[in-house]
Write a structure and sequence with these properties.
mainly alpha, about 190 residues, two-stranded antiparallel ribbon, 3-stranded antiparallel β-sheet
Amino acid sequence: MANKLINQMGLPKSIANIFTARNIITAKDALSLTEFELMELLDVGMAEVTSAMAHISEIVCPPCQTALLLMEQRVHNESLAGHLPTRLKGLDEALCGGIPFGVLTELVGPAGIGKTQFCLKLSLLASLPANCGGLDGRVIYIDVESKFSSRRLIEIGINSFPEIFHKKGMAQEEVDDDYLYLTYHRWQVEY
């Protein structure tokens, strides 16, 4: 929005032409100067500069929004209101149902607290079939610390979802040097 042209902002023609004549073409050009600098450069009064700057700011700056307003908008927007339940009752209650869809969630904490294990479990939860409480989705696990362990993922699956991992023919494991395939009918996690 900062590169929006001043002559396309609905300013009175007289003031828009003065901005253009002084090579103040975009909103960024205008907003980079103080009102006093603009008053001197444009050779107009303070009232005209203040009015023009308010108009430009209103068009290019997003409205101020509180965290509460953003949360209320999210709740009202059906497509983004879903959550991935973590199956940790207290955490799910605090997060209003789990990890929210449609946003980037950063998980932080001291070393050894279980961030990697939690992410592995969320990966399983997201990719489980819907009839098993999952999202029937696909997961891309980005591991910048090389902590991913396919064996640990299988252990978490066996311990957390024994009814799925122990069903004969339901789970199939293939591990080669670079890939892990866990297939549950339509469920597949790849690494």
